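Inputs:
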Amino acid sequence: MSGDGNSSRAGDRPAVEWIVGGVSAVLVACIAAFLAYQAAFGDSVPPRLSVSVDRFEQVSNGTLVEVVVRNDGDRTAAGVVAQVAMADGQGQTIRKTIRFDYVPGHATRRGAFLLDDPQLSRAEVRPSIDGFTEP
Amino acid sequence: MQVGGKNDGGIVQLGRDVGRAGGGALIFSLPMLMTMEMWELGLYLDRMRLLVLVLVALPMLVLLSRRIGIESTRNWRDDVLDAALALGISAVVCLVVLALFGLIGPQEPVDVMIGKIAIQMVPASIGALLARSQFAGSSGEDDESPKEARETYGGELFLMGIGALFLGLNVAPTEEMVLISYQMSEWHALALLVLSIGLMHAFVFAVGFAGGSPTSPEEPWWSPFLRLTLPGYVIAMVMSLLLLWVFARLDGQEIDSIVMTAVVLAFPSALGAAAARLVL
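Outputs:
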């Protein structure tokens, strides 16, 4: 490495400093080019949210339903409310909701519902998205 | 450590060093000790990521001690002990402060207590080591610093890494980092990248001419820009990505969001990297 002190001129610098500088310049240029490309040609599709059941498990005090919320749009959705609905024994519909602070574009977020009925089957649980806001 | 060789004043010197390190740890980690996200991360953060943070920090602390430490160390063994001492003192400082805030107590599981302390310990230990440069200067006792006179290129980049890690650690755990990136368009991110590099270069120039940095007034502007500013920004980006990963801020994100969030965090990290010579 260099120990040239303050009197060095640009031409006197060791090759390793220029190599490190050159590699860094290429990396920074790649990041800038990626951002510029996304800014100029990337889509700006509003949030397109979907929710699906990822894991369904009987636990000691009910049924654990793990869901995955996916945003296939480009923009971030805030305050995303996911819901599951199911019928109880008397024909009534029970709904439960959970709220995700943010679901960025093309990203996924996970959450879980704890339902009281330990006898539920996967087919009885209907997940959906209630709504969202802009961040 | 040099304590044994300092004859009758050894205990007093050790007390002074420990007190100084404790003060540095407290001052540098207080913003994080009083940040809610840091307590929560200590609760749920994947222990493997926490281990990675400590393992990355450990050699950096040893190297930092090599340059600037609690004591005037002269060999690698001393530097390793110095870094371990800084980590130990930091753990105690974090334990005391978190206990005083009522954030940890005997009712907490050991795993949670260790998590809450470990995550705070890393920034605090940087502060403990830096206490020497921050507090020793005014006392006049440690003015002779052979490593200050001339900084090598590798040493300069290393200091940038420490500066980026430290300032990045202050803000990376906060939710605002991702929230800011959600509010920005790619044009904003591009402008922020240019601003970060521009400000970094201003620091590199200002500090380079003022201190012993490997820049020279005779050089054209592009020489330190290519050799120091751009590598410094890459270091800031790498540190930002590491911290965002450790704090689980990249989970479930696609490449576009990851780059945007990294550019946001790289702004303070880049300033930390560029100003490292002023602070460290």
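Remarks. The radius of gyration of chain B is 19 Å. Residues 1-6, 137-149 of chain B have pLDDT under 50 and may be disordered.
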